[in-house]
Structure formats: C-alpha cells, structure tokens
Amino acid sequence: MRCDCNGRSRYCLRDAGGLHCVDCQGHFEGRHCERCKDGFHQQGTLPSCTPCRCNPTGAVSTTCDSRGRCSCKDGVTGDKCDRCPDGPIGATGCKQSRQPRQDSGNCFCYGHSSRCSAKTGYSVHNITSTFASGPDGWRAATARGDTPPDVHFRWSPKHQDLEVISKNSLPVYLYAPARYLGNRLLSYGQNFSFSLRLDRGVRHPSVSDVILEGNGLKVTASLGELRSIVPCGKKVHYSFRLDEQPSSRWRPQISSAQFHSLLQNLTAIKIRVTFGENGELPVSYFPFRYFLRPGSFLLIQTLLFHNSFYTSYFINK
C-alpha cells in the first residue's frame, strides 16, 4: 500500500485500517497529514499551517477558522479577539457596560432598523455545543431516524469533537438535541451556523444537506452549488439565515407566516455528514469523517433579540 501523506511526511505506520502517516511536517496532523493542528490554520495553498494567535483572554479557544479568525467571548471583538468596545482588551477582559447589551452586527428588524439591543427584562441567548464533556445530546442517524449498524458515531475527549463514520449508501445526518428545538420564534431572521470538515473523498452537495422540520413543514438547503465539490480536509463554515427570503437558500420557498409556524414548533434540525456519489462509497478505511469542533467552530449559534421580533419594541440605534 502507498504511503499517502499529501507530501507532508515520508513515514507511515500500519494499523488495522492500513497505513497512517507519522511525523507530519508544517504543523499538520491526521491519518494523511490532511489538516492543521489545533491552534493553526492553512492560508490558501501555503505549504504549512499558520498559528491562529488567538488572544488567550478574549478567545473561547485556541482554534480559528480558515481565515485566521478566532471565536470571541461575549463583548470581545476583533479577528484575534483582542478588542473591546472601548479599545484594546485588558488583562482581565472587557469591562461590563451598564448600558443595554447591543450585538456587534446587524440584526433583522423588518427594515425598520439595522441595530438592536435586548429589551429590559430580556437578554441575548446563545445556544451552543462545545463538546467539552461529551456529544451534548447530538446523535447520528439516517433521514428517517434509523442508525444502521455500519454507521459509527463517537465523541473524542482528546479533540473535543464528534466523528461520524459510515460505509452505508444512505446519507447520515446529525440530529440536534431537544434544547435546540421547540418554540424558536425569536430566532426568526437570525443566523444558524456551523462548521464541518470532510476527512477524505470527493463529494458533491445535495438539495437536502440541512433540514429544518416543524408543524408539518420542512425546508432544506444545500451546502453549496450542486455541481460544486465539498472541500476535503478543510474546515468549512456554513451559515443560514432563519427566514423565507430567497437569499437564505431554503427550499421550497415558503411564506413568512409558514416560516414563523415552522419555528414556533421546531421538531428537528438535521445536518448531513456523509456524502456518497451515485450511491457508491469508496472501499477504504473510515471513508467518511466529519468533525464538529468547539470554540470558533460552534455548531449552532442562535441570537434571540426580543425587540427585533416584536415591532412594538423597535429601538433605533
């Protein structure tokens, strides 16, 4: 068997799955030296990984996205999480403001405002999964909810991520736990975001890579153009806005009232994590892997703005 290390190592060891690379160069790791180590990212086609350099005080973790942007704690901004609203971050972080909390980006207010803050008595609520102590209620199954015996799902305590391995021809999805479901009306117009990485193989997106279900309604979205290729070995960030606008890419396109109805009783969130081509899977060890990482790779971040949903509470900034 050939030692396939993407040109980043000349040494392999044999195990039950065949050959795996050792001594990967350029801060790479993985069975085929295909991904950057935690705390590093790859810039374009550079032959080595670049340090993330996340600010340890302001960042959630040492990881960053493909552009080197770190995931920041509440109230902290900047690509490296080194800025506060009033200037550079201090040794103890950002000072808490007595003013109502305001999101650093735009929010959805039906065109009446481009900024919003939490109404008195309400607060912004983030729903996240860090996988620091387990799978956090996530599970892997087919679109019908079945888990075939040749689909393997595990949590890695070392990397604090989830791994899905399948040799089944049916697409496998990750199902969100109950705390992401139920009445999510206040999430209307906000972003639903996650990051994934395909370990090996060349696979094309489908029309049903992301699925939302609720109140007898279902909308789906693709992870890219249907003729495109899902990137292999790279963490890719995806974000979908929770509304009926064409730019949000949900299909079929439903009315605003229907989308509100779906969110009022959200019963399922499914994210596709295996990609076969024409129903055929390559014969190789662990043909499909997806990793969900914490920190800058929060699985889902939903911002709930009370006053951006109810028109009687618009606050222009």
From TrEMBL:
Gene name, Swiss-Prot/TrEMBL: LOC104963776
Disulfide bonding pattern of the chain: C24-C33, C52-C64, C72-C81
Coiled-coil ranges from the UniProt annotation: none
Keywords noted in UniProt: Disulfide bond, Glycoprotein, Laminin EGF-like domain, Repeat, Signal
Gene3D superfamilies registered for this protein in UniProt: Laminin
Protein name in UniProt: Laminin subunit gamma-2-like
Entry keyword annotation includes Membrane: no
InterPro entries: Laminin/Netrin_ECM, Laminin_IV, LE_dom, LMN_ATRN_NET-like_EGF
Pfam families per record: EGF_laminin, EGF_LMN_ATRN, Laminin_B
GO biological process terms on file: animal organ morphogenesis; axon guidance; tissue development
Stretches assigned to the Laminin IV type A domain: 133-317
Domain called Laminin EGF-like: residue spans: 3-51, 52-96
Entry GO terms, CC: basement membrane
Record carries keyword Repeat: yes
PROSITE patterns according to UniProt: EGF_LAM_1, EGF_LAM_2, LAMININ_IVA
